[in-house]
Specification:
Keywords: DNA-binding, Phosphoprotein, Sigma factor, Transcription, Transcription regulation. Belongs to the sigma-70 factor family. ECF subfamily. By secondary structure, the chain is α/β, with parallel strands linked by helices. Helix content is 50%, strand content 14%. The protein is built from 10 helices and 5 strands, in the order E-H-E-H-E-H-E-H-E-H-H-H-H-H-H. The chain has a 5-stranded parallel sheet with strand order 2-1-3-4-5, sandwiched between helices. Helix 3 packs parallel to helix 4, helix 4 crosses helix 6 and helix 8 packs across helix 9. The protein is elongated, with a radius of gyration of 19 Å.
Length: 207
């Protein structure tokens, strides 16, 4: 049984999803919510796959929503009616396992859920075009802690203050920051100074 949760602010869609899932033997809808905050706050049991609407009325950033869900240990399948290519690519960079547009039929959605549950990424034609249309600089793959140190340091904090802010030792913060610099350097993107790192944060829309 694959335990599914859904985050969408369309009540009719959620009600329809609940009715449909009851007819699919290997899927079970265990939670629904209008926002990621609501889901994470009220979730009472384990979830295997979270269906996440790309654009929610609370104006939360899709990539940040994905990142929060992934950090909480959930696999994420993003759903949308339409999206800018950079939004779609950003969700994958944040850890989403799949992307499906809402014009697919329910059988295709069930198949996508099964793929994500099996830890196989779901790539669609829409995602391929989004990747081809993405003109942003190539981003390094940063761990959550590396990203946190980078954001704190690039915001103007000293490394010691950033370490204190994150509750880690200064030497640990230095290790994370050095890793960030190496990763950007390996992509040919300057990262030696705080100013250069702040520019990388702006380019990569990491805030």
């Amino acid at each position: 049984m694959i335990r599914v949760a859904a985050v969408d602010d369309d009540r009719m869609l959620l009600d329809g999803l609940a009715t449909w899932v009851r007819s699919v033997p290997d899927l079970r809808l265990v939670a629904t919510a209008a926002t990621v905050d609501e889901l994470l706050r009220d979730l009472a049991g384990p979830v295997d796959v979270v269906l996440l609407d790309l654009v929610l009325r609370d104006r939360s950033a899709a990539a940040e929503n994905v990142g929060r869900l992934v950090s909480a240990g959930h696999r994420v399948l993003v759903l949308s009616v339409w999206a800018r290519p950079d939004q779609v690519v950003a969700t994958f960079e944040a850890g989403a396992s799949g992307y499906v547009t809402k014009d697919h039929d329910l059988a295709a959605l069930a198949a996508a859920v099964r793929e994500v549950y099996a830890e196989r990424p779901v790539f669609s034609t829409e995602l391929a075009f989004a990747c081809l249309g993405d003109t942003r600089p190539v981003r390094p793959q940063l761990s959550p802690r590396e990203r946190a140190v980078l954001l704190a340091y690039a915001s103007g904090m000293t490394l010691k203050a950033a370490a204190r802010h994150l509750g880690i030792k200064p030497e640990t913060a230095r290790t994370y920051l050095d890793r960030v610099k190496v990763k950007y350097h390996d992509l040919g993107r300057p990262s030696r100074t705080k100013l250069e790192l702040a520019e990388r944060v702006r380019e990569d829309q990491l805030r």
